[in-house]
Amino acid sequence: MNRRNLLKTLGISVGATVISAEALAKLSENKYAYTLPENPLHKPLSKPVTAIILGAGNRGTVYGSYAVKFPEQLKIVGVAEPIPLRNERHTKLHKIVESNRFNTWEDVFKRPKFADAVIISTPDNLHYAPCMKALEMGYDILLEKPIAPTEKECRDILALAKKKGRIVGVCHVLRYAPYFVKMKELIAKGAIGEIISIQHFEPIEHTHMAHSYVRGNWHNSKATTPIILAKSCHDLDIIKWVIDKPAKEIVAMGDLKWFKKENAPEGSTARCTDGCKVERECPYSAIKEYYERRSRTSVLDLPEDKSKHAEVIMERLKTTNYGRCVYRMENDQPDHYVTSILFGDNVTANFSMEAFTSYHGRRTRVMGSMGDMVGDMEELVITDFRTRKELKLVPTADDVEGYKNSGHGGGDLLLVRDFVQAVAQQNPKLLTSTIDESIESHIMGFMAEESRKNKKVMSIKI
Q1: Inter-residue contact 173 to 408 (CB < 8 Å)
Q2: pLDDT tens digits, residue range 131-145?
Q3: What pLDDT digit, counting tens, does each position of 219-243 carry?
Q4: Checking DSSP bridges between strand 17-19 and strand 12-14, what pairing results, if any?
């Protein structure tokens, strides 16, 4: 038996740990690509799970795409969306009957229950009310993060879900990314000995920051949620999940430093389209970002006819926040944020969220008593102190169009896959991100924000 077949048969050893080798492919010496094996608890479905999408924006489109790809598992039977173009697109894509099209989420619940589940991908401040109503009516729920804008509302949803015995899956999609699944598995098996600490870094990328948290829907923390929850509750959650110990204390620092009126260059104007004298040299030019690069244009709700895109984009830049100067918005979200967390058994973690990078995608370093891990979601490198050997693992996953290489690592579709199985089998244990599991990282986020504002160490009490 040659070395390659031996590795496939026996698995790869890291320290005292054997990595399951069901789907390994050798790329080079000590470097292997892998996919996650099928979940043995999954069962063939006699009929697809039915769901209603509340909020047909980017995230609703992503989760709904699972029904397009796997119609035998999931069928979208209703949509609630006030923007006509989005409502129409979802109706055509999923062949939704006219009677199941709604302008608002409230309209959905005026009807008796007509699906197994609802997918809540409305804006952050519209998560709580539809979720509570859906629970009252007996729906299972796939809930976009963050759960809700306040700690009390998060706890209310948890309490009602328990009372009604319903499944609430939270869209902490990184828990389903093969990269982080493997990281957690190796830590749990002792591949690097006892875990000591973690350093985790989320580079947002400067134009993404400008798009989403300066000009975009999440620019005002009071109207939505603080950026530590709106953007980085994924990261607090994944740190907690791989460490697998209770969080005890948290302290945070950070602020809005750059995207402020006093930093506006001389000659700049209220909009990039107003004859701004520095627009051509500005890294945040809306004309360059949306009109020339055609980047992130899904928020502009462009028509199907591509010949009209140029005209419509310029019109949107003249009439919406996406054309406004980044130095003249009503934004208050911090553009840099650091936090330190103490977990059980004196395990520590540092997390840093940074806007001013030319790249995106999470970076993680895990320090253990017998080895360490270094990864960027493209590759995970494990080094064993005892043998001084390193092993490189490369995850492969099916990422969603528009989110490729963006940091979700294929977790979006794998989350929906497990949610469908959980609903079909009425078994929440088929999900790793039920509200019971996900609420702790939300409380970490609320306490981090309180620490940042009040400059004190906060206790985390579940």
Answers
A1: yes
A2: 999 999 999 999 999
A3: 999 999 999 999 999 999 999 999 9
A4: antiparallel
Q: Is the pLDDT score of 407 beyond 80? A: no
For residue 228, count other CB atoms closer than 10 A to its CB. 27
What's the full length of the chain, in residues?
Answer: 462
Instruction: Please name the residues in contact with 77: beta carbons below 8 A apart, sequence gap of 6 or more.
Output: 50, 51, 52, 94, 96, 97, 100, 114, 115
* Residue 23, amino acid: A
With both helix axes pointing from N to C terminus, report the angle between 58-69 and 84-94 in degrees, rounded to the nearest 10.
Answer: 10
Query: Is the sign of the CA dihedral 426, 430, 436, 441 positive or negative?
Result: negative
d(CA 90, CA 291): 25
Strands 101-102 and 117-120: unpaired
Distance of CA 365 to the CA centre of its chain: 20
Nearest Cα residue to 352 out of 331, 369, 336: 336
CB 131 within 8 A of CB 143: yes
Report the distance separating Cα 212 and Cα 230, nearest Å: 10
Rounded-to-integer distance, Cα 440 and Cα 210, Å: 29
Tokens representing 236 are 């607090």
CB atoms within 10 A of CB 28: 7
Q: What's the rounded Cα separation, in Å, for the pair 153 and 147? A: 8
In this prediction the pTM is 0.93
pLDDT for position 399: 64
- Tokens 């360059």 map to which residue? 288
Per-residue burial over 137-156, b = 16 or more CB atoms within 10 Å of its CB, e = otherwise: eebbbbbbbbbbbebebbbb
Start-to-end CA distance of the chain, whole Å, equals 52
